[in-house]
Design a protein that fits this description.
The complex is a heterodimer of chains A (503) and B (341).
Chain A: E1 4-14, E2 20-30, E3 34-38, H1 45-52, E4 60-65, E5 68-70, H2 75-80, E6 83-86, H3 98-108, H4 115-129, H5 144-158, E7 162-166, H6 174-189, E8 193-198, H7 201-207, E9 210-215, E10 218-224, H8 230-238, E11 260-270, E12 276-286, E13 290-294, H9 301-309, E14 316-321, E15 324-325, H10 331-336, E16 339-342, H11 357-362, H12 379-392, H13 409-422, E17 427-431, H14 439-454, E18 458-462, H15 466-472, E19 475-480, E20 483-489, H16 494-502
Parallel strand pairs in A: 3-8, 3-9, 6-7, 7-8, 13-18, 13-19, 16-17, 17-18
Antiparallel strand pairs in A: 1-2, 1-4, 4-5, 9-10, 11-12, 11-14, 14-15, 19-20
Helix pairs in contact in A: 3-5, 12-13, 13-14
Chain B: E1 2-5, H1 10-33, H2 38-50, H3 52-77, H4 85-102, H5 109-138, H6 142-162, H7 184-204, H8 206-216, H9 218-223, H10 228-255, H11 267-277, H12 282-304, H13 309-331, E2 332-335
Antiparallel strand pairs in B: 1-2
The chains are: A alpha/beta (503), B mainly alpha (341).
Chain lengths: 503, 341
């Protein structure tokens, strides 16, 4: 029997809104093991690890480290005790370079290291685990994937004993996930303990030594490696009479491509620093066609999205949408032609925090909806239009007067889809539409896209989730360093796509 | 020390604001009593809040503050942080005085007043537009450029007062003739109309919605078809127009003439403060403007019974500060505890 390094005993967390996020939970972590923490969104996984890493104070319960009771008053305390928490959406400090950010974390953990030795150490870790990082880059403009890579390096640099990863694979390609697994196994082999949070059964079973399944704030089962079974885990996750097994995507009959709704020719676009972000992109989307764009984050996908939406001006090339050359059109004029926009950030890019659901629907419709076009808003009409929009994709909310930031990620995404589809678009451009969503909601979202394609809408789906792309796309394009490097048709070869993504 | 945000109801905030103001007054009375007889001080405080003359004066004083603040609520909601109201108020007053007392243009009475007001508003709007254009086309920070423009307006007007507008040996200008002066009822009506108009723009118009969207999520505004340029130009024009109007009404209702002492009156800066204090809510902004101007009136009263000007300013600031702190305690919980580092 290996030694228990950490124990959490009878942890109960009750949030101010009286939600019991953790209900009398006890877990232990052994030295050198990879512990999978599996559960649906809202099962209480993140709350539990936030207690362990000192971010949340439990309402009840205690934490034992090497058998001794510890009390963490902040993240810093946990960090100094050798616990590293890697959040689902890691934030670096704006205005600092990556190197400075790493230095700051070291200081926070009570260690100091010279610039030179950080650089040297990071370089050796990066080459060992195949993590590409640019220490001189400014942290403001890094993608989630890039931020994650930096966060992965920090616990190794700090020599943390317990590393907690919260849904680390959300923004990773299959190959990156594989190399993450081997990195975790290597670290576990060196005696580190790893808590790996995921809502995907496949991920939990492929890397964990032991899986703890959580459901509705409680532990519903603990399973050892030799007893892993998909059915058992599913039942533990969703309850024994779950309907999840019956859920699946319904595909429409083979669709007809009549003509191209979007054509992009030789598109050259500059990035934020004047470098070339897109190098001669050619692509087309037909009516009724779902075209997926695969690629590792930071290979020009964001710039492609922004250029097609009209937020970024190309230096060369043209964009033909609906038989109109829209290259110099504003986003508003493109929306008028039938463009639906689903950006990767829900709050702040697609939705306006602080405004209610109705305002969040109509602000994006006033440009195209003739009944809303007058200078004075008829709020009665606005409410009716909002309700109609939400009939297309329903959401769960107490009232339409609710401020959007109180909605769950899934409901936010449904709200965005409802609004965009209510404009009766001809083309939907979506970026990472299911990232961070639970299993059921992401199936809903994908189903909506498939349904609309079967009604003649063209869809360009830019995504970091290769599984999702293969599931819904009629064609998959691979983007690498700002260029389209390959095109794949069904049946897809996951391996070949993944190879092109990193070549 | 740790500061936590908490949700406070509007009632709670208003109650705390009143308690804060009251505390401020008590401190002010104690401070003034060091120099003067406490009963005299108390009497003048009570006089300000119970007599019609000081209350009327306060309402008149509040018009340039309120007009600036109301326009700024729109600008600040769009995160266009201009502090140019001061310069626009000064220009509004000056051009009104020029038009009526110096230009030699003689129209029938209501028309010349109307034209003077329109002229002042347009000048304010154009002056404010400079700030917006500098931000859009030169990337200039609006706080700095509007502050500089305030100095330009102030010193230009001071120069005019000291040279071509000066009458006699003292640096004082001609006065607005009796028949051109506006009554307090006109000012009250204008206050109400401006407040309702601002509220209407925010709550009921498409432009108001675009301001909210742009201020809270500029990226969403741009992506879904709003033009940031239009929004910034729009709010700068409206706020400048209102500040210019405030300046004109100040001139026509209580200033009547300019002296170098009176030309930097600070009404525009008070408007900036009021807009922030009222969380950019037009109705609260109007009430807060009147509260501010009662403090100005109180200050003048204290000065009249012998408190030196600098001490008056300190007392005024004391009242404002204690109100601010009280409002902050309604919005935040402040906890002191020892940290383990």
């Amino acid at each position: 029997m290996r030694t228990k390094i950490l124990e959490a005993v009878n942890i109960t967390v009750i949030y101010p809104n009286n939600v019991r996020a953790n209900d009398n939970i006890s877990i232990s972590v052994n030295e050198g093991e990879i512990l999978g923490l599996l559960g649906e969104n809202g099962a209480g996984k993140t709350t539990l690890v936030k207690v362990i890493s000192g971010i949340i104070k439990p309402t009840k319960g205690e934490i034992l480290l090497y058998g001794k009771k510890v009390e963490f008053n902040s993240y810093r305390d946990a960090l100094r005790s050798g616990i590293y928490y890697l959040s689902q959406n890691p934030q670096l400090i704006e205005g600092l370079t990556v190197l400075e950010d790493i230095g700051l974390t070291l200081t926070l953990a009570g260690k100091s290291m010279s610039r030179g030795s950080i650089e040297q150490y990071v370089a050796s870790i990066a080459s060992k685990y195949n993590l590409k990082v640019d220490l001189k880059a400014l942290s403001d403009n890094l993608s989630v994937g890039e931020r994650q890579r930096i966060e992965l390096i920090k616990p190794i640099l700090l020599d943390s004993k317990i590393i907690i990863l919260d849904e680390p694979t959300t923004h990773m390609s299959p190959l990156e996930i594989e190399s993450l697994y081997s990195m975790l196994r290597d670290l576990a082999g060196k005696g580190k303990s790893i808590i790996f949070i995921t809502h995907k059964i496949r991920e939990a079973t492929s890397v964990s030594d032991r899986i703890i399944v959580m459901r509705k704030g409680k532990i519903s089962g603990i399973i050892e490696r030799d007893k892993f079974d998909r059915e058992v885990l599913l039942n533990l996750m969703f309850g024994s009479n779950n309907t999840i097994n019956k859920l699946g995507l319904r595909y429409a009959k083979p669709r007809e491509y009549k003509s191209n709704i979007l054509e992009v020719r030789e598109l050259w676009v500059k990035g934020d620093y004047g470098d070339l972000a897109l190098r001669g992109i050619n692509l087309s989307v037909g009516t009724s066609e779902i075209v997926g764009v695969a690629g590792i984050a930071g290979n020009g996908q964001r710039e492609l999205f922004e250029t097609l939406v009209g937020l970024r001006k190309p230096i060369r090339g043209s964009i033909i949408f609906n038989n109109v050359d829209v290259t110099s059109y504003s986003p508003r004029d493109r929306i008028k032609l039938g463009l639906a926009i689903v950006p990767e950030d829900r709050l702040g890019w697609a939705l306006v925090p602080g405004l209610n659901i109705v305002s969040n629907i109509i602000f994006a419709l006033t440009n195209v909806d003739s009944t809303l076009k007058s200078y004075i808003i008829d709020w009665g009409m606005a409410w009716r239009i909002a309700k109609e929009a939400l009939e297309i994709v329903p959401i769960q909310a107490d009232s339409l007067n609710t401020s959007v930031e109180s909605l769950s990620g899934g409901n936010m995404q449904r709200l965005i889809l409802a609004r965009e589809l209510s404009r009766k678009p001809r083309l939907i451009i979506a970026m990472n539409p299911t990232s961070g969503l639970d299993y059921v909601t992401s199936i809903n979202v994908k189903q909506v896209l498939i349904d609309y394609a079967s009604r003649g809408v063209g869809i360009l789906l830019i995504s970091e989730d290769l599984d999702e792309l293969i599931e819904v796309s009629d064609r998959v394009l691979v983007m690498n360093r700002g260029a389209i490097v390959g095109e794949f048709m069904r049946p897809y070869s996951l391996e070949n796509i993944a190879k092109l993504m990193i070549s | 020390m740790e500061v936590l945000e908490k949700r406070a109801t509007r009632g709670e905030i208003i109650l705390k604001a009143l308690i804060g103001a009251l505390t401020g007054y008590i401190i002010a009375i104690i401070l003034a009593s060091i120099i003067l007889n406490p009963s005299d001080v108390l009497r003048s405080v009570l006089w300000v809040y119970t007599n019609t003359t000081p209350i009327t004066t306060a309402i008149l004083f509040s018009i340039p503050i309120a007009a600036s603040a109301l326009g700024l609520t729109l600008a600040y909601r769009a995160k266009f942080i201009t502090i140019g109201a001061e310069g626009q108020v000064i220009l509004g007053s000056a051009v009104t005085l020029w038009f009526i007392a110096y230009s030699g243009i003689n129209l029938q009475l209501p028309f010349s007043i109307l034209l003077a007001i329109i002229l002042a508003s347009i000048l304010g709007a154009l002056y404010s537009l400079i700030v917006a254009l500098l931000r859009i086309y030169a990337g200039a920070n609006e706080i700095l450029s509007s502050l500089m423009l305030n100095f330009i307006a102030m010193y230009t007007v001071n120069y005019l007062i000291a040279t071509s507008w000066r009458i006699g040996p003292f640096t004082i200008t001609k006065s607005i003739p009796e028949e051109y002066r506006l009554s307090v009822s006109f000012i009250i009506a204008t206050l109400i109309v401006l407040t309702l108009l601002t509220w209407f723009i925010l709550a009921r118009t498409r432009f108001g919605l675009s301001i909210e969207v742009y201020g809270r999520a500029p990226r969403a505004a741009e992506t879904y078809g709003y033009s940031p340029k239009t929004i910034i130009i729009g709010v700068s024009i409206i706020s400048g127009l209102m500040a210019g109007l405030g300046g004109a009404l100040a001139m026509l209702s209580f200033q009547h003439h300019l002296t170098p002492m009176s030309s930097p009156p600070g009404y525009g800066y008070m408007g900036v403060l009021v807009a922030w204090l009222s969380a950019n809510n037009p109705i609260i902004a109007m009430v807060a403007s009147i509260f501010f101007s009662t403090i100005v009136v109180l200050g003048r009263t204290l000065q009249a019974i012998g408190v030196p000007l600098s001490y008056v300013l300190a007392i005024q600031s004391m009242i404002v500060l204690s109100t601010l702190v009280a409002v902050a305690t309604a919005k935040y919980t402040i906890r002191f505890r020892w940290f383990k580092w």
